[in-house]
Amino acid sequence: MQSLQEKASEWSGVAASDAFAIDETNLFQALGGLQPFVDLSTNFYNRVYADEDEWFRSIFAGSRKEDAIQNQYEFFVQRMGGPPLYSQRKGNWRVFFLGIFDFCPTH
């Protein structure tokens, strides 16, 4: 049986070694620091919150645009080799994603 990584490589045409090269490169420094990530996140969420389709905008209705922008750029900065802005403010991002499943009732 193929692993998820093998399937992703097959479907995308990108070798796993190339995909994981991000771990060997400091994109935060290579792209010039914080501002490109702020700009990218701001541009993305400006488009999301201005989208014509109500069903799409409703996905983000529970969060303020400014918060979404900050969460995204801080996460990207941290993942791309910059300072741990996201973890300093929100805690370990892996714990956050595990917490998504806390809504399940316990026995």
CATH architecture assignment name of the domain at 28-101: Orthogonal Bundle
Helix fraction by DSSP (H/I, runs of at least 4): 55-70%
**Sheet with most strands:** none
- Strand-residue proportion: under 5%
In total, how many beta strands?
0
Overall spatial form: globular
GO molecular function, one term: oxygen carrier activity
Family: Belongs to the truncated hemoglobin family. Group II subfamily.
Keywords: Heme, Iron, Metal-binding, Oxygen transport, Transport
InterPro entries: GlbO/GLB3-like (IPR044203), Globin-like_sf (IPR009050), Globin/Proto (IPR012292), Hemoglobin_trunc (IPR001486)
Describe the structure.
The chain has 8 helices and no strands. The chain is an all-alpha fold. It is globular, with a radius of gyration of 17 Å. The two termini are 34 Å apart. Residues 100-107 have low confidence and may be disordered.
